TrEMBL record, chains A, B:
<protein>
    <recommendedName>
        <fullName>Probable nitronate monooxygenase</fullName>
    </recommendedName>
</protein>
<keyword id="KW-0547">Nucleotide-binding</keyword>
<keyword id="KW-0216">Detoxification</keyword>
<dbReference type="InterPro" id="IPR013785">
    <property type="entry name" value="Aldolase_TIM"/>
</dbReference>
<dbReference type="InterPro" id="IPR004136">
    <property type="entry name" value="NMO"/>
</dbReference>
<dbReference type="Pfam" id="PF03060">
    <property type="entry name" value="NMO"/>
</dbReference>
<comment type="similarity">
    <text>Belongs to the nitronate monooxygenase family. NMO class I subfamily.</text>
</comment>
<keyword id="KW-0288">FMN</keyword>
<comment type="function">
    <text>Nitronate monooxygenase that uses molecular oxygen to catalyze the oxidative denitrification of alkyl nitronates. Acts on propionate 3-nitronate (P3N), the presumed physiological substrate. Probably functions in the detoxification of P3N, a metabolic poison produced by plants and fungi as a defense mechanism.</text>
</comment>
<keyword id="KW-0560">Oxidoreductase</keyword>
<keyword id="KW-0285">Flavoprotein</keyword>
<dbReference type="GO" id="GO:0018580">
    <property type="term" value="F:nitronate monooxygenase activity"/>
</dbReference>
<dbReference type="GO" id="GO:0009636">
    <property type="term" value="P:response to toxic substance"/>
</dbReference>
<dbReference type="GO" id="GO:0000166">
    <property type="term" value="F:nucleotide binding"/>
</dbReference>
<keyword id="KW-0503">Monooxygenase</keyword>
Amino acid sequence: MFETDLIRRLNIQFPIIQAPMAGGPATSKLIAEVSNAGGLGSLGAAYLTPETLRSTIQEIRQLTKQPFGVNLFVPEDATESQATIEKMTAYLNKYRTELGIKENPSINIATESFEEQVQVLIEEKVPVVSFTFGIPSKEVIQALKNQGTLVIGTATIVEEAKQLESAGVDAIVAQGSEAGGHRGTFLSNKADSLIGTMALVPQIVDQVSIPVIASGGIMDGRGLVASLTLGASAVQMGTAFLASVESGAHRVYKLTILSANEDSTAITRAYSGKAARGIQTTFMQEMDQYAGAIPAFPIQNAMTRDIRQAAAKTNNPEYMSLWAGQGLRLATDHSAGAIVKQTMSQAHALLGNMLKLKDKSEEIL
Amino acid sequence: MFETDLIRRLNIQFPIIQAPMAGGPATSKLIAEVSNAGGLGSLGAAYLTPETLRSTIQEIRQLTKQPFGVNLFVPEDATESQATIEKMTAYLNKYRTELGIKENPSINIATESFEEQVQVLIEEKVPVVSFTFGIPSKEVIQALKNQGTLVIGTATIVEEAKQLESAGVDAIVAQGSEAGGHRGTFLSNKADSLIGTMALVPQIVDQVSIPVIASGGIMDGRGLVASLTLGASAVQMGTAFLASVESGAHRVYKLTILSANEDSTAITRAYSGKAARGIQTTFMQEMDQYAGAIPAFPIQNAMTRDIRQAAAKTNNPEYMSLWAGQGLRLATDHSAGAIVKQTMSQAHALLGNMLKLKDKSEEIL
């Protein structure tokens, strides 16, 4: 359990990876706290400039001597007609008026340069790099592996896992439908598959020969041992850390997490243009009624940024993106290190019970 | 593992319940085979007349001396406007023409009498009775319990589980989003919740004091041990038995199951008016484009019956309801008894590995 091949290669103590959670929650403090506790902290760097990415990596290294990971989004070209963009701009103005911010803002849809981000990760010799939304080029994967970086891909169906393995990644995150935040799905016709973790993990494990990391609805020692039982070599937990002391999530976001239930979330494209699971908000519900087409990611993400930021400033959760998974009732406000330790001791106790069960099973089988 | 309180009360050997699967798959042979192998076979009796229900129970008793279960649907009143029904009738005629059956058939939407079905279960002293789509009256639950019947309810969110416990059921099936067939959801505004098994089971276990039965995506010993780890006292498996030797599923249905993948299913109201998970078909895809409102269950179920039956006669899976869960790659055509035994020996072997893991964990924690 604590010595799977993957854990040895990650050079960490416990099979717990903190989900990257781009956009705020995964602070250097959170990442270092998880890594110092024996897990693997991860930085969601998709929205960071190469400069900020580099300085954050150096900041993390000042807080921990342990390994950590960095996650990037594989870029996709998105174009939308002027009409689609103008219609959405007009629709969004209603929220801008309400929030007292400028209407028809000039939207900068330019994203950070993936190549420059990768270059920083290579130069900084980051121990673990994971990718979401696709398969990086064999050159990128090879360049990272050549210097000893462990490369992880994200799959939501078996076929994505197979393609990632062929591309040469070292391990695969199997993202179940329970997971919070953006769906990693990159085979475009499969966006609605939403395979639950219980079904997804064993089917991917059977179809690839590299280690699988279970994610989606895993909140404590029960989810950890269950995932290892399904054949996973480790788990990735995000929602479990969202309201932790070291999380950078907005105070209102944390309070919402701690009061939400398993059925408080929904899948939406309202905020970013890409399917993601978050706590249901007025913004999501109203966008469900939107007559036009929602611009693709990252365009819609850029178009709603000023609204999300203004909502955060005024502590208004209804217009903020409150990414979260379906394990919400099990979220706590403990420190991230305590969450890692509690998860491991619960897992340890469960193994003790399993032992008793085995003795009983001897009598029967 | 094999001696949870629930298993003792069910008086069975292994914590494996075969899902009722109303409408064909759960034959007396399948039920008896599962019960004789040490699990609990279950009859999906929702669509059976009181007479057929009684004779089927007697048939099962001739095939096994072991306990078995019977599942009923808690009835709901559904009414639809003449316009809605006429529009759907006209739409469905296109399939009737193609299948060469009579257009505008007179639809009998009358369902079997729930009271009479319950009366039969009481008279026949059925060991286990489970309910789906709601909470039976306290009188019905008490009448069954008074004669020693173990009563099980079905929940898809925590709140449904709490209400079932208050009503007095003995145990709860926690139906995760991976599950095939009809969603048991009965709190009407929660139909889209679709909580994955990994997230649902521990959250329900924490909120009720009665035993929980995990269902949804559980296909083998890995899913069984994982579910027990999450706090379940047993599992309910349906898709795992659908293509088994003793299953009454149509030959074409079985072949489709054995060739389908984890992402072959979708949630649809096309066949019955109630949300259910099945392998994607032309009928489902075309109904997604249907302009009008789909009549509620059981009206739509009655309106599509002649089409499903004609499709089955002509071995046309595209117009049949192919209910199935997301664990499809793990389905086999073995005998149901072998599936129970294979699941248990795999579970037993997994416990052996857990034991090794525990020894390792000793060194660390």
